[in-house]
Amino acid sequence: MKTRKILWILLLLSGFGMQAQYFGGNKPRYEQFDFKVYQTPHLELYTYLKNDSLKQFFLKTGEEWYKRHTRMFHDTIDYRIPVILYNNHADFQQTTAISGDISVGTGGVTEALKNRITMPVRPSFGQTKHVLGHEMVHAFQYNIVKSDDSLSFNNLANVSLWMVEGMAEYLSLGRYDGHTAMWMRDAVVNNDFPLFKDLYKSKYFPYRFGQDFWAYIGGKYGDDKVVPLFYSSLRFGFKTATDTILGVKTDSLSKQWQQANINYYKQFIKGRDTLVKGKVLFDEHNAGTMNVSPVISPDGKKMIFLSEKNVLSMDLYVVDLATKKMRRIASKSMNNHIDAIDAFESAGTWSPDSKKFAFVIFKNGKNQLAIVDVSKKKITKIIDIADLQSFSYPAWSPNGENMLLLGQDDGISDLFLYNFKTQKTTRLTHDLYAEMQPSWSHDGKNIVFSTDYYYLKRELYPIKYHIGVLDVQTLKKTHPSILPGANNMNPQYNADGSIIYFLSDFDGFRDLYKFDLKTQQTYRLTRFYTGISGITKFSPAFSINHKSDEIVYNYFYKHQYQLVKSGISEFYNTPVTQTKVNILPSLLPPNVDLNSSLVERLLRNKYSDLQVTVKQKPYKPKFKLDYVSNIGLGIGTSTMYGTGMMGGVSMIFSDILGQHQLYTAASLNGEVYDFALMGAYMNQKHRIGWGGSVSHIPYTNYYQGVVRDQINIGGTATDVDNYKIYTVRMFEEKLGLFSSYPFSKSLRAEFGGSLAHYSYKITSFNNYFDYYDPYTGYYNYFYGTEKRNEPAPSGFNFHELNTAFVGDNTVFGLTAPMKGQRFRIGMQKYFGKNDLAAFTFDYRKYIFVKPVSFAFKLSHYNRFGPDSEKTYQDGGILPPLYLGYDFFVRGYSFDAMYQSSLSDSSSLWYTDLMGSKMLLGNFEFRIPFTGPERLALIKSGMFFTDLNFFVDAGLIWNSSNQLSLHKDSNDRNVRYPIYSTGVSTRINLFGQIIIQPYYAFPLSLSGAKKGYFGVNFYPGF
User: Fold this and answer.
1) Which residues pair with 395 in a beta bridge?
2) Confidence of residue 200 (pLDDT cuts 50, 70, 90)
3) Contacts (Cβ under 8 Å, ≥6 apart) of 810
4) Distance CA 758, CA 781 (A)
5) 467 close to 610: Cβ distance less than 8 angstroms
6) What is the distance between the alpha carbons of residues 234 and 614, in angstroms, rounded to a whole number?
7) CA–CA dist 333, 699 (Å, integer)
8) Alpha-carbon distance 187 to 180, whole Å?
9) I need a surface site. Which of 269, 572, 640, 724 has the fewest CB within 10 A?
10) Average pLDDT over residues 226-242
11) pLDDT at residue 8 tops 60
C-alpha cells in the first residue's frame, strides 16, 4: 500500500502526457519576476523594475516613438502596444514570451501575433532608446498586416529581411550613422557593393545594407515614399511596388542605389588608407572572419581575443605574440557550466601579473566572472558577484586587488569596484549617465570611460558618446573637451597616464586618436577609409602593448574584422585643428540637408511638451490566441460506409508573458466515433516547468474476408457468402502530467507519467452474395448490405512513469549536429495490463575539425520485468524493439534480407532483428557539401546539403538468447552483432524537412555483395 501511494504521488507531481523533447537545449527560468503593468495612452508596459524614474523615462520615450512612427506610417494602432521590459540581458535570456534561445547579440524581439515587444534595459539610455524605437517600427509594420483585410501574415514573405530590419534601423537611427557608413565604404572600396539579388548572402548584413537602402529611398524620392513602398511590397511584391510607387523597375532601382553609393563614397577616398598600418596578425586565412576584442597582457607577451575561427561559435583564444601560436581557452561547447560568453560589447581583462584572465559569462541567470589560468589554459574559477546581477567591461585594478565593472542595478548602469578578498562591491558612481568601456590609469588613481553625459543631459538624440574621467580618491567626474560632437569611444591611458588613446568618428571615419593631457592637444593617428571597429560601435577594438609601444587593433575590411599590430611610431601624429565635426563621410547617400529630411527632423524633435499619464495595474494572466492551424473540412457519403466528415484545427493560446500556454487540437476523420480531441497546458512561470494533457484519440484499422453465413430471405434461412469488412476502433483516453527541471541551458532532469484506458468498438459491413470470389471480385446474385456491431474485447489500462537526465550542448550544422555532445539516461515504468520497465542510455559526441565533423553514437535500450517480452499474441502491448530500422542500422531492409535468404537459408531474417534489449553504435564522417561559404565545399545561400560516410553496428536479443561475437549457422538462438557501411547525403529543404538518401552495404547478410538504397526523413543523429 505504501509503495502504491508513493507511485501515485510521483505521478501527480510529474506525469507524462506531453513528454519533453528527447534532446535539445533548455531555457532555464532562474528567477521568478514580479511583473506589474503600467499603461500610457499607447503603451502597456510589463516590468518588475522598481526604479520609477527609469520607468517614466522609458514610457515617455515610447510615447515619443509612437508620435514619430504615427507621422511616418500615417497610421495609429488602436490598442496599447505591449512591451515587456527586463532589467538586463541576463534576465531577458530567461523570457517566456519568446520561444527559443535568446542570443547574446539580440537587443530585442517583436513578435507578430500579439505584436508585443520584448527587450532588456541596455547599459546606456541611448542604446535602450534606439532598441525601443527599432522594435516599435516592427510593431507598426505588423499592425499594417493585422489591420488590413487584404493582407495576412503570409504577405510578410513578400518583403525580405533587409527591408524589414533596414526600415527599422532607418526610422530609429536616421541617415547619419557612422557605423553603417563604414560598411558601405568597405563595400565600395572593395568593388563589392551588392545589387538587390545579392542581399540574401550572409556577408551583406541586412541591418546595415537595409538601412542604407531606405535612406536612399528617403533621400532620392522623399521620406513620404518609404511606408507606401513597404506597404505595396507587402501586397504585391517588391518588383511591382517599385514600379507602382516609384515609377522605376526593380533592376534599374538596384543599379541606381548601387551607383549612388559608389559615387558618393568614392569622393572621400583621396588621402585615406585602404590598407592596414602595420602587420596583419589574424584574418580569415589563419583564424576567422570575425576576430575581435584584443587584450594584450601587461607583460606584453600574450594576447587574448575572440574569434569564430571554429566557424560554429565565438570562442576565446590566447596567442603568443612572438610566435603567433594560438590556442582556444574558453568556449560554450568546452565548458558545459557556461550558458554563454559575452562576446559582443565586453572584452576581458588581464591580471597585473599576466597569469590570469577574467571575462564575463552568463550562468545561472546572471553575469559572472570567469577566471582563466592562462598557463593551464582552462577556467579555474567562476565568481558570482552577489551584489550585481548584470555587469560588463571588466577591468582588473593595477594593484590586483579589485575588479572594475560597469554594473546594472535596477536598470541603471554605474561603475562598481569588486574586492577579491572581501567579496564586496563598492559603488563608485550613482547617476543616470553611462560610464562605458572603463579603463584604469597605470597608477590606479584615475578611470577613463566613454559617457552619454552631455547628450542625455540636453535630451539630444541620436546620442553621441564622449570622454569622461573619474578620480578614484574623490569620486569626482570631469569631462575634458575632446572632439565635442563626435562619438569618442574605447578610451585607454598610455603607460605613464599622460595620454588618452581613443576611437572617434570626428571627421566621419572611425579612426584612432590620442589626447595629450598636459598640452590638451588632440592628434589623429590613423586615416583609414573604412575604420577601426568591433562588431558594434560599443565593442572594444584596440589594445596597447605598453612594453613595446605597439597597438593591436580591429581593422574592418571586406566585411571582416582583422587583427593588426602596429608600432605607435608608425601611425600619423597629426594635430587636430578643426573644431567642427565632419559628418559627410558618415552620411548615407544621397547627401541631403538633414533639416529637409522628415526622418531626421522627427528623430531630433525633443517632444518637450509631451505629457505622459501612467496608470498602474496588477498583472492578471489572460489567454489570447497565438496560433491557428489551417482548417479543412470535407464531407463524403458512401452506400457502404454512410456519411463521413474530415477536418481538423489546432490552436495555441498564452498569456502576454508566455508563462501559461494552452494547446488544443481537434480532428474528425470519418464517422462521429472518429472524433479526436487533445488539450495540453504548460506552466513556465517557475524554474520547474510543468504541465498536463488530456486526450481522446481513436485508432482505426480495417480487416476483410469472406465467410459462409446464413441470412433470412422471405422467412427462409439461406446460406450465402458474406464479404465482411471489419472496422476495428481502439479508443485511447489518456491523462498525462510532465515536468522538467533545467540545471542550465545544457542540462536538465525530466519527470513524467500518464494514466491511459483503452477500449474497442468493432463494426462490420456485411455484403451478402450467392457466391463471391475475393480474388477476382466475381460474384453471383447480390442480396444487399447490412451494418452490424460486433463483439469487442474488453478494455484495459496501461500506465507509465518516466524520468530522465538529459544533457545537450551541441551546435547544429547544415543537417545534423556538428560540435559538442549530448546524452540521455532514462527509466520508464509501465503498469496496468503489462508490467515492465525500460532503461535508456544514449551518448553522442561530435568533433568538429574544420570543415568536417566526426560523429559518434553509443546507445543501449533494455526492457525488463515480467511482461517485457510478451508478444501481441500473449497479450503484450508494446511492439518488440527492431534493429533493422534505418535510424538504427542502415541497409537491413526486408528486400535485402529476402534476397540474402534465397542463397542462404541461415541468413538473417526480420525476426532475428527483434528483441527486448539493444546495443547500438554508429559513426559518421560528415562533410558539409553545399551551404554557407565558410562552412561548405560549394557555396550556396539556400541549398544546404552534406555528404556522409557511415559505419553502423548493432546487437539485439531477448533474455533467452545466447550472445556471441560471431554467427552460428546451426543455431538461430545465438544473437551476434550486425554491421553495415555506406554513404549518404542529407538535404535540408528550407529548414522544413531533412531528406537522407543513403546507399548501405549490409555486411552481416550472407552473400551481400551489393548495396541497397534507402531514404529517411530526419536530421542526422
Assistant:
1) 404
2) confident
3) 23, 333, 817, 818, 819, 820, 821, 822, 844, 846
4) 41
5) no
6) 35
7) 43
8) 11
9) 640
10) 96
11) no
- Alpha helix segments (H runs only) across 563-719: 598-604
Confidence of residue 774 (pLDDT cuts 50, 70, 90): confident
Query: 545 Cβ partners below 8 Å, 6+ apart?
Result: 296, 300, 321, 551, 552
Q: How many CA atoms lie within 13 A of 494 on its CB side?
A: 14
| Mean of pLDDT over the chain | 91
Is residue 790 within 8 Å of residue 48, measured between CB atoms?
no
Cell, residue 13: 507531481
Q: Which amino acid is at 815?
A: T
Grid coordinates representing 516?
595629450
Overall size of the chain counted in residues:
1021
The residue type at 313: S
Residues 248-306 pLDDT 10s: 999 999 999 999 999 999 999 999 999 899 999 999 999 989 999 999 999 999 999 99
pLDDT at 4: 39
Q: How many CB atoms lie within 10 A of CB 766?
A: 19
Whole-angstrom distance, CA of residue 108 vs CA of residue 165: 12
Say if CB 254 and CB 195 are below 8 A apart: yes
Give CA–CA dist 220/590, Å, rounded. Answer: 7
Nearest to 48 by CA among 38, 39, 40, 57: 38
Query: Could you tell me if residue 129 is left (phi over 0), alpha (psi between -120 and 50 degrees) or otherwise beta?
Result: alpha
**DSSP structure string for 799-858:** EEEEEEEEEE--EE-SSSEEEEEEEEEEEEEEEESS-EEEEEEEEEEEEEETTEEEEEEE
Which whole-number Å values give the CA distances from 993 to 200, 890, 949, 989, in the listed order? Answer: 21, 20, 21, 5
